[in-house]
Every structure is written in structure tokens, then in C-alpha cells.
Design the sequence.
């Protein structure tokens, strides 16, 4: 974290100490870093008697409901009182707040805490550090700097935030600091074994069925360097699964040794195909996604194509081929 | 590591400093902890000019041949000279050394370094610590205690040893020490991103095919709390795969949320079925394996049944049912 980010954090602490009614929200399509970060900071601020409301921007995946504090996440309503401070975590831009975007203008002050390089700095204060492997690392630092003692509940949320956003401490973004934070969380007694069972050993039968069915659509191109997989509405129906159950399949097919680009096509509607792209070493998939008005990072990006799933596959593979060749 | 293990380590260091010809070996069916530990200590001892030979006890999986020093692993031959010290790593008993077991009696001194609770203490010195998450952690400690500086090659082997034996730092056995060691390895410059690509994003097409095929044999029992999966010789032939490619499938099926016991049956020969068992929270699978003359740990065990694969499945499921009910 550089000097100016450090300064922003100091200013944020002053604001937090000054005001009482604090609201916390994060992005739609919630993930572990988003939920863990919101809950960790909310539990910490309650320890210094702040009046904290954690807002729901989207449906919460069942998988994270084991987290301490998760049942306090609620829809915004006026009775919650005035918004002194609105803390937005893990959210690269205002639109990703969903309906809660509208609350930004009601807040006296907005504190934006994030690790995405694409963050638009929409806050009055912006604690944005792309060198943090997870927003959870920034929340850890904020809590420590405020002198609030970590406890098992806060620690369990931080562990979840960091583990899920780093592929179990394996992504490029991990630093030695990441491991030292985790060491400290283990020392205070965080039950990471139970957390890991909840996070990673909890695949529903429906998700398993969808996984097995979808693997039958695996197709290879360009000497097995490109792989595609399709998930249709018919498959979801057959497996009793939801589209969110497709999560994780792309990481699995990217593991195939010859694969440089993995592509999953999801049939949202007949002529609305959502495409996820992952690369391993060389290809910038954000560039590919951009040519279909999508976006993302070098190794993970996405876009949509408005045609049927077979046609969409042809189009996207055509584009990937140009780059892989 | 308790006082007596610490003392054994001090004695081992004295021996290592006194002698010159050092041989290192580990168990058959090599894994990441075994190979990483052997290579890390071998590279460290070469830095203090010891004459080190790393012995092959079994075929080395291709997946680990990216490790620094891996190409120096060799079969024992007499020309390698007298065995002053024989360091055996990650090996719970002498039989697991395969053919290299015979060399134990040729050695002036045997140093046994391991973290398995079942270790038979077969060495002249026994550095055995079941509280270490990986043998790699003990090797790290030994190298530090000898005052040999870590470098990227040694560190890459230690990272591999520890990561592979802890399911990416997620198993119960992990401690804060584990994460602090990894933090230090990252600080000295270990390229964990490339290591992770090599270890976990390197699934052969044959293995992928075997994985997909075997999933079609998934069967559930007792309200989905028991799951079985079968791998036949026919499947291997069809996928162009080897039985070792079945590695990892059991971890995958254990993830299914309702599952308490996962069981994989491998058809080694027509009437020789090797069985692997994993449990999640409550069941002691070592007890189940023992009733078929097998063994292992509470959460991971194995045995063999001499009948055809369908019959073996009935037998093992019958036994698991008694425990799960």
C-alpha cells in the first residue's frame, strides 16, 4: 500500500470515529471476498459501538451463510436511519452496487475500499490498492490500524475473503503478507478446517450433476490449446440446477495441460449467451472479450453474444483462434 | 517439534557435518512432499559440499520433473560409493522404501525424517514430528538449523512439498508456522505462480478423459452420504490413461455436500480391486479399511479386495453402511 493510500486510510479512520451511522455494501453477484470483507468490517465497527447496517445488493449464495454475521445482511429501508458513512467494499465502480447505487448521494461521506486496478475512485475517500490479493487484506489492515482487536468471528470472515479471492493462496496476486495475515488468523484460533469444508467441500448434488453433464460438451480446437464447454437451459432443468452452479467449471477445464484458453458458454436465454474466458500464460482474454463489448482482466474476462449457443461458440472460437495462432 | 525431536535433529546435524557420502531416498508411489523434501535437502547439502546421491525408489511422475534437481534422481549403483549416511524422508516404515530398503543395512547411520504418526522409528536417529503438516516443514527447519541459506531452488522444492501435502494449505494439519514458512519462501523469490501452474493446471487429456468416463459410474447410498466411483482397466484403455491418472478423483467426489464417505474402486486386475476411502467429518475410514486388512488415517485410508469390481463394491459399501448408519 503506497503513501497516498495509507493517508486515505488515516482519513477514513478519522471519519469513522467521528460519525455513528455506518452503512456497508458491495457488488452484485456476491463472492467470498465481497461478503467476507463486508462482514469483517461490520463486526469490527460494532465492537467500537458503531451503529452498522450491512446492505444486500443481490441474492446471497447459500454457500456463505455459515459466516458469522451473515444473517444480519439486509435490504436497505429508511428506518435504518441517516447514512453518515457509506463504506463500499470490493466494488470497482458505482454501477456494480446494483440498487444500492442510489444511496451514494444520500451519504454524508463515501469510503471506497477495493483492490481492483480498474476502480473508478468514486468515493470521497478511496482506499484502493491493486497490490492487495483481496479486499479482505485491506480490511485487515484497516481494523489493525484502528486498534480493534481481531477475534474468531472477524478472522473467519477475513480468512474466507482472502482464501476465496486467491484460489487458496495460489494466484499471482498473493504476497508473503497474505500468508502472514493468514498465520495471524490461525494463531487467534480461526477454525480454517471448518471454513474450508464449508467453502470447498460443499458441492450440491445438482451442481455435481450439472458438472458431469456439461463435461460431455467439451470441445478442443487448435491442437487442444482452446477448450470450450456449453451449459444450456435444458441441462439446468435436467440437473435441477441454477446457472450459478456453473461456477468453478471453467477453472476445472483450464487445468487441462494443453489448454491456453478456456471458454464456457452459458445459455441465459435462447439468443443471449454469456461467455466466460480464462487464459493460462500468454493470451490476453480481456482483448478478446472487448471485441464483443465485454471486459475483464488478462487472465479472466467475459462478454455476451446475442445468437444461439452453437453460433456463439463459432464466433468466439473464431476470435480466440486469431489470437492463439 | 518437541524437545526430544529437537535433540534428534541436533544429533543428525553433527552426523551430517562429520560424514561426506550422503544418500537420500523416500517412499514408493512418490508424491510432492516426498520428492520436494528429498530435493530440498539434497540441494542444501550440496551447498556445503557434501557428496549427495538422491535415489529413485519408484517411477517418478512426470508432473514433478519441473522441480530443480529432479533430473539428478537416480537408481542406486555401487559406483556411487560407500553409504555414510542414509537420509530417509517422508517414509513411515522401511518397507515403503521398495528396493532401496536393502541399502539400510549398508549405511553407517540412518536418519529418518518424517511426519507420519505411524512412523516405526527405524532410523539411528528419528526426526519424526506428526505435528508438521508436511515432511517439507521438517526439512525447512533442518536446513535453517544448519545455517545453510535458502535459495530459490531449495525454496521451490519446499513450496511444492508443503503445498501438495496440505491441499494448498487447507488441511487440518496446517499451522500458522506453515504459512510463515511459505511467506519466507515467497520473500526469497520462489516463483509460486509457475509452480502452481505446473502442479495444479497440468491435467493431461488422458486424465481428463478418464475423469469424465469414471464420473458416469458415480453411485450414491444411504441418503447420498456414501458415494462410490469405479475405474476399470477397460476405461484406462479407452482413455489412454494409467491408473495413476485416477489421482485426485476421490477428492473431487468427496466435495459433494451430502457425502460423508467417498470410495474409489480401482481394478488393478480382474480379481484385485484396490480401494481408497475418504471421510469428511465423522467416520474413521481407517477402521473400515482395517476390516479388509488395509490401513491409513481417520480421513484417508485404503485396502484391497480380491473379487471382481462389482462384488468388491457390494462388500465395501456393506461395511461402510454399518458405520454411517
Sequence:
Amino acid at each position: 500500500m503506497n503513501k497516498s493510500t495509507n493517508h486515505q486510510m488515516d482519513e477514513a479512520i478519522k471519519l469513522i470515529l467521528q460519525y455513528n451511522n455506518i452503512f456497508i455494501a458491495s457488488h452484485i453477484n456476491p463472492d467470498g471476498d465481497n461478503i467476507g470483507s463486508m462482514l469483517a468490517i461490520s463486526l469490527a465497527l460494532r465492537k467500537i459501538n458503531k451503529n452498522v447496517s450491512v446492505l444486500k445488493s443481490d441474492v446471497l449464495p447459500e454457500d456463505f451463510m455459515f459466516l458469522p454475521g451473515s444473517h444480519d445482511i439486509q435490504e436497505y429501508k429508511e428506518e435504518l436511519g441517516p447514512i453518515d458513512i457509506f463504506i463500499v467494499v470490493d466494488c470497482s465502480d458505482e454501477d456494480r452496487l446494483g440498487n444500492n447505487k442510489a444511496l451514494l448521494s444520500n451519504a454524508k461521506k463515501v469510503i471506497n475500499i477495493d483492490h481492483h486496478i480498474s476502480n473508478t475512485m468514486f468515493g470521497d475517500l478511496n482506499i484502493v490498492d491493486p497490490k492487495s490479493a483481496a479486499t479482505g487484506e485491506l480490511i485487515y489492515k484497516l481494523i489493525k490500524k484502528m486498534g480493534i482487536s481481531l477475534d474468531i468471528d472477524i478472522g473467519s470472515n477475513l480468512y474466507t475473503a482472502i482464501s476465496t479471492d486467491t484460489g487458496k493462496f495460489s494466484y499471482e496476486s498473493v504476497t508473503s503478507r497474505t500468508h502472514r495475515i493468514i498465520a495471524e488468523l490461525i494463531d487467534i484460533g480461526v477454525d480454517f478446517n471448518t471454513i474450508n469444508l464449508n467453502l470447498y467441500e460443499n458441492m450440491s448434488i445438482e451442481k455435481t450433476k450439472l458438472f458431469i453433464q456439461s463435461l460431455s460438451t467439451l470441445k478442443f480446437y487448435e491442437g487442444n490449446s482452446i477448450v470450450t464447454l456449453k451449459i444450456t437451459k435444458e441441462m439446468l432443468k435436467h440437473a435441477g440446477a441454477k446457472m450459478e452452479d456453473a461456477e468453478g467449471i471453467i477453472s476445472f477445464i483450464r487445468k487441462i495441460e494443453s489448454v491456453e484458453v478456456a471458454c464456457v458458454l452459458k445459455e441465459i436465454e435462447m439468443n443471449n449467451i454469456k461467455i466466460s474466458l480464462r487464459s493460462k500464460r500468454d493470451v490476453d482474454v480481456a482483448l478478446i472479450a472487448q471485441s464483443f463489448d465485454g471486459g475483464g482482466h488478462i487472465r479472466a474476462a467475459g462478454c455476451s453474444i446475442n445468437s444461439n449457443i452453437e453460433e456463439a461458440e463459432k464466433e468466439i472460437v473464431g476470435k480466440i483462434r486469431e489470437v492463439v495462432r
